[in-house]
Design brief:
Elements: H1 3-17, H2 31-43, H3 47-51, H4 56-65, H5 71-81, H6 85-90, E1 97-99, E2 102-106, E3 130-136, E4 139-146
Antiparallel strand pairs: 1-2, 2-3, 3-4
Length: 156
């Protein structure tokens, strides 16, 4: 094999082994940070990055629960509904409940997420549904998902 071809093969093998573009889930150090990243990625229409904060099964639930074929398509759908992306990014998961290595935030009745300035958005992260996170060796990841489409009428 020619030296430049061998070098190319070695470089390509190294990139593949390093997981470049592998889409491996990688969470943050806290559940709140994972959720903050998730909403920023949705606001920026960064579907792959948003979905990498979810386990493979959660990605499938996120897609299916929002009547899409892929997690990335579901992210794009939510992104398309956001009128004020800066305000969306600033939303805080104030309804986050953490017990040990599990955390959950539910948008049911609009109570999971609030804006620090009190801004009321037409589309906000409460519309995502219920996100359950677990601490893993890769950080806090979304492990389970229930679409807001599954909610009954608020208060009824």
């Amino acid at each position: 094999m020619r030296p430049h071809r061998l070098l190319l093969v070695l470089v390509m093998s190294s990139l593949a082994a390093a997981g470049c573009g592998s889409g491996e889930p990688e969470g943050a150090d806290t559940p709140q940070e994972t959720l903050t990243r998730l909403t920023a990625f949705i606001a920026d229409d960064e579907g792959e990055d948003a979905c990498n904060l979810m386990s493979v099964s959660a990605q499938e639930l996120f897609a299916r629960g929002n009547e899409m074929s892929t997690c990335e398509q579901a992210v794009n759908m939510f992104h398309g509904k956001i009128a004020d992306r800066d305000a969306y990014r600033q939303m805080v998961p104030t309804g986050l409940k953490t017990e040990g290595d599990e955390a959950e935030v539910s948008g049911y009745c609009g109570k999971g997420w609030t804006h620090p300035g009190g801004t009321d958005l037409r589309e906000d992260p409460n519309d995502l549904g219920t996100l359950t996170l677990r601490r893993t060796e890769n950080g806090w990841l979304v492990q389970d998902y229930v679409s807001s489409r599954e909610y009954s009428t608020c208060g009824g």
